[in-house]
Amino acid sequence: MVNLSENRTPPRTDFYYFMSKTNLYGNALVPASLLIGGAISGNKEMRQNAAYVASSSVLSYGAVLLIKKLLKRPRPFRGNYRIIPVYIAGDYSFPSGHSSSAVSTATSLSIAYPKWYVIAPAALWAGSVAYSRMYLGLHYPSDVATGSLMGAGTAVYLNTIRNRVQ
């Protein structure tokens, strides 16, 4: 963590700040695009996949918020003066909500559309969002790992439920 903070460069910082900000848009635009595409084409499966992807991300993020309020782990920059955040994030650190929702969106999208050209960019995007949280000085590696596991777990769990219902 300290090494990341002390060795930032403006181009990498700009890139990871941008990737961190794409989280909100990715989590909203992916299911919205599926919903719109399914409505235009009359594809019921695509509309159902939109609900699955959106539900996975929302459920995962909701669980993160609950755990953050219960555990109240301070952000890394609050405990180590050598870690300088790129910006000051609110609330608590554990687990990472960005990591959870990005990995949940990417995993659920990859489960719904198991093609390499969906999986590879989704994984690259989610991994970049998750890494950005450490690079920016806002999360510990354990925050990111736990958030990522929660996101993937939520997507897999909801897919299991979805398969039982169908």
From TrEMBL:
<keyword id="KW-0378">Hydrolase</keyword>
<feature type="domain" description="Phosphatidic acid phosphatase type 2/haloperoxidase">
    <location>
        <begin position="50"/>
        <end position="159"/>
    </location>
</feature>
<keyword id="KW-1003">Cell membrane</keyword>
<keyword id="KW-0812">Transmembrane</keyword>
<protein>
    <submittedName>
        <fullName>Phosphatase PAP2 family protein</fullName>
    </submittedName>
</protein>
<feature type="transmembrane region" description="Helical">
    <location>
        <begin position="24"/>
        <end position="43"/>
    </location>
</feature>
<dbReference type="GO" id="GO:0016787">
    <property type="term" value="F:hydrolase activity"/>
</dbReference>
<keyword id="KW-1133">Transmembrane helix</keyword>
<dbReference type="InterPro" id="IPR000326">
    <property type="entry name" value="PAP2/HPO"/>
</dbReference>
<dbReference type="InterPro" id="IPR036938">
    <property type="entry name" value="PAP2/HPO_sf"/>
</dbReference>
<dbReference type="GO" id="GO:0005886">
    <property type="term" value="C:plasma membrane"/>
</dbReference>
<keyword id="KW-0472">Membrane</keyword>
<feature type="transmembrane region" description="Helical">
    <location>
        <begin position="49"/>
        <end position="67"/>
    </location>
</feature>
<dbReference type="Pfam" id="PF01569">
    <property type="entry name" value="PAP2"/>
</dbReference>
